Amino acid sequence: MKKSEQKKFLKVLNENRSKLIEKARRAMTGDIHLDPNDFPDEIDTASSESGLAFIGRLRERERVLIQKIDIALQKIEDGTYGVCASCDEDIGVQRLMARPVADLCIDCKSQQERLEH
Questions:
Q1: Distance between CA atoms of 46 and 55, rounded to whole angstroms?
Q2: For the residues 15-42, what does the mean pLDDT come to?
Q3: Phi/psi class of residue 101: alpha, beta or left (left: φ > 0; alpha: ψ in -120 to 50)?
Q4: CA-CA distance, 75 to 65, in Å (whole number)?
Q5: Dihedral of CA 104/108/111/116: which sign?
């Protein structure tokens, strides 16, 4: 991968990471708690708990994405970014533009998905 392409992906990854961290900071300063006295009936309580569970799942996905971004940033530093973790071939620039944290080329990812199904 060319140095100019690496710089472009470094910028994109850092921007994505910053946005996710800022979003997490805003969420942490928000008041997310349940007080049973705030809800007049069981349906309201269940609805609120369901909403909080959904938010929790989103936060977990964001945490995992931050970890993947950190790994991609380390690979840029190591000079291994854009190399498939399975076959050691280059991951196409188009794939990396669509998914900058991709660690598998499109062929290996397709094979992995077929095996999972």
A1: 14
A2: 69
A3: alpha
A4: 15
A5: negative
Q: Is the dihedral of CA 93, 109, 68, 73 positive or negative?
A: negative
Give the C-alpha separation, 62 to 59, whole Å: 5
Place of tokens 């062929």: 107
Q: Decide: 80 and 89 in contact? Cβ < 8 Å.
A: no
Structure tokens at 8: 């472009």
Residue with tokens 């196409």: 92
Return the CA Rg of the chain: 19
Q: For the packed helices 42-78 and 3-29, what is the interaxial angle rounded to 10 degrees?
A: 150
Residues 57, 77 contacting (CB under 8 angstroms): no
pLDDT in tens, 83-108: 999 999 999 999 999 999 999 999 99
Q: Distance between CA 56 and CA 23 in Å, rounded?
A: 13
Tokens of 69: 């971004």
Residues 6+ apart with CB under 8 A from 48: 34, 39
